[in-house]
Amino acid sequence: MIIAKTPFRMSFFGGGTDMPEFFDKFGGSVISTSFDKYCYTTVRHLPPFFDYRSEIAYSKIERVAESADLEHPLVRNAMKHLDIRDIRLTYEADLPARSGLGTSSSFAVGMLNAFHRLKGKNAEPRRLADEAIYIERVLCSEAGGWQDQIAAAYGGFNRINFHDDDYEVIPMDIAPERRQKLSESLMMFFTGFTRISSLVQKESKPIAEKEKELRQMLSLVDDAEAILKTGEPDDFGRLLDTTWKLKRQTGANVSTGKIDEYYEKAMKAGALGGKLLGAGGGGFLVFYVPEDAREKVAAEMKDLLYIPVSFTDTGSEIIYESKETDYVQY
């Protein structure tokens, strides 16, 4: 039995510029971090006592004779890609799916990590990220960028640059006290709305129609990096407000009237900036809030679930492995 633990990600700047249609032309860059909420993927070979050959448990349970008959596209394509057969796989997570935290990509990365270990191999972060991108974007034909898979595989607080159908991961060199202040200043709330990211992406404006906004959002990545390293920390929050206003212009479904209402409440209560995480339409709102305004912001957001978070430095990892029973027929 193998258990893989994979973090979710929080993306601050550059979201949307990680789409190949954009970065192959203009380059792309994002700043994001993994944080202390995870998904757990358990995989083992299915004992030979059942009239089905594989069992997959997530929000539903699938039992099939052939993996090609699985409804879950990620699992079906990953099993085919790595020639995995006759398994029992379970998925569970600290936070809900379809909530703007890269949950599907974290699942893809964690599943691939467990599959490789089941075959007796260790997979490096680059391989996990590359395979997850290929399975989600090519085999499953899901719209979206590349940052989620990379963040889940590598973990940590990183700048990820995209260019010429490739990427590089650059860990952010932030002084510990500055990183701690940023972590303490972030307040994350669950809106209660979930959505499928790939559908939001498909309903968004074509790249050509939001090129101006994306290029402006890309330029903010350098500004954000400078603030994180040597600037005034509160300016990070103000820059979040700038990038959120640009993001709202990239598609009608990025925000909703209710989300806008919550955002304005937090800003009036003292937040310096914030954004909706992920492609938009629902999920989690994160705000940068100075210490003296946190109680007031919490009071204004009392209808939403507050989720305390801390940054982490690890990507997907195998946290448990046990030897399986060998079944022999004489």
Q: Please, what is the average pLDDT?
A: 92
Shape: globular
Order of helices and strands: EHEEEHEHHHEEHEHHHHEEHEE
Number of strands: 12
Please identify the structural class as seen in this structure.
alpha+beta
Mind telling me the C-alpha Rg?
20 Å
Q: Beta-strand percentage?
A: 15-25%
Fraction of residues in H or I helices: 25-40%
Largest sheet: 8 strands, mixed
Low-confidence stretches: none
Tally of DSSP helical segments:
11
Give the N-to-C terminal Cα separation: 25 Å
Topology at a glance:
Elements: E1 2-13, H1 20-26, E2 28-45, E3 54-57, E4 61-64, H2 73-82, E5 87-93, H3 103-118, H4 125-139, H5 147-154, E6 157-163, E7 166-171, H6 176-185, E8 186-190, H7 197-203, H8 211-230, H9 233-248, H10 257-268, E9 273-276, E10 284-288, H11 294-300, E11 305-307, E12 317-321
Parallel strand pairs: 3-5
Antiparallel strand pairs: 1-2, 1-12, 2-5, 2-6, 3-4, 6-7, 8-10, 8-11, 9-10
Helix pairs in contact: 2-3, 3-4, 3-5, 4-5, 8-9, 10-11
